[in-house]
């Protein structure tokens, strides 16, 4: 992992794997072999940095089929989850809601909501980001089911109506490659491309120094673009008005739309 900017315990937090050891469990190894021998997935897996994200079509916590491309045009934070993973439970809110199904919660980790606010200045419970948790393994180290997704979402208060989605992965996704990405986060930009990746023991990007700040940057750029679009729409609507009517309109100050450091840190 990249050199930490905060404290060493964060390195341990992201570096932890599932509660079960692949090397120490022949049963788990046999499961991986069986999963990798199943029929091909209808989408590419695993994701590739800089390329379009796989268009996952999976069952969500409400029992409905959800396609990840339904959220194209929005910033998406994908979290890869194994339910027995203590770090995954912590990121999901284990300190607040307790461990899932009698599991363990890594005590030195806050929820991803807390870290998103701290390092990205983003409220994951707002409308700026779609949080998608993909459950790849359940407590038995089998592929997660729709029932697992529903139970996980209920425990950690993941509300589908508030852009907090829980998806059950397919058996063919329960491979060693997926295992090695847990715990992990993928940042998908508005063009539906994998922009940053902080997953497993060897992440490409540091979660705290790179991925979460980048998420904040994408959110602020989106706000600036919307503000500029709204301003242009209002200006266009005044084209046919008389000069006296135009003077009575109050337009937002220019710096509040796109030149303020708060809105666009690149300027």
Description:
- The structure is a single chain.
- β6 and β7 form a beta hairpin.
- The protein is α/β, with parallel strands linked by helices.
- It has nine helices and seven strands, in the order ααβββαααβαβαββαα.
- The chain has one domain: Glutaredoxin (3-Layer(aba) Sandwich), CATH 3.40.30.
- It is globular.
- α5 crosses α8.
- A seven-stranded mixed beta sheet has the order 2-1-5-4-3-6-7.
Topology:
Blueprint: H1 8-15, H2 26-36, E1 57-60, E2 65-67, E3 75-82, H3 86-92, H4 94-97, H5 112-120, E4 129-137, H6 146-155, E5 164-168, H7 176-180, E6 184-188, E7 194-199, H8 207-237, H9 243-248
Parallel strand pairs: 3-4, 4-5
Antiparallel strand pairs: 1-2, 1-5, 3-6, 6-7
Short description:
This protein is an alpha/beta fold and 267 residues long.
Structure characteristics:
about 270 residues, Glutaredoxin, 7-stranded mixed β-sheet, 9 helices, 7 strands, about 15% strand, globular, disordered N terminus, disordered C terminus
Beta-sheet strand percentage? 5-15%
Radius of gyration: 21 Å
Enumerate the spans where pLDDT stays under 50 for 5 or more consecutive residues: 3-24, 245-267
Q: Class by helix and strand content?
A: alpha/beta
The number of distinct β-strands equals 7
Biggest beta-sheet profile: 7 strands, mixed
């Amino acid at each position: 992992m990249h050199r930490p900017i905060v404290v060493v315990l964060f390195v341990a937090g992201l570096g932890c794997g599932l509660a079960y050891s692949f090397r120490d469990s022949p049963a788990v190894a046999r499961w991986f072999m069986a999963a990798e021998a199943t029929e091909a997935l209808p989408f590419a897996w695993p994701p590739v940095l800089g390329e379009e994200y796989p268009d996952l079509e999976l069952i969500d916590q409400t029992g409905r089929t959800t396609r990840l491309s339904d959220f194209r045009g929005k910033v998406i934070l994908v979290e890869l989850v194994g339910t027995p993973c203590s770090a995954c439970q912590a990121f999901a809110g284990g300190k607040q809601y307790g461990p899932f199904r009698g599991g363990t919660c890594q005590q030195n980790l806050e929820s991803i909501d807390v870290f998103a606010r701290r390092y990205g200045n983003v409220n994951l419970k707002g409308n700026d980001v779609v949080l998608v948790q993909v459950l790849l393994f359940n407590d038995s180290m089998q592929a997660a089911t729709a029932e697992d997704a529903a139970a996980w979402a209920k425990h950690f208060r993941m509300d589908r109506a508030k852009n907090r989605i829980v998806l059950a992965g397919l058996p063919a996704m329960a491979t060693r490659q997926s295992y090695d990405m847990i715990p992990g986060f993928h940042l998908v930009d508005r063009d539906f491309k994998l922009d940053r990746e902080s997953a497993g023991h060897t992440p490409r990007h540091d979660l705290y120094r790179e991925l979460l700040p980048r998420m904040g940057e994408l959110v602020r750029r989106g706000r600036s673009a919307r503000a500029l679009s709204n301003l242009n729409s209002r200006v266009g609507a005044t084209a046919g008005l008389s000069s006296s009517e135009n003077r009575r309109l109050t337009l937002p100050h220019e710096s509040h739309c796109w030149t303020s450091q708060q809105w666009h840190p690149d300027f």
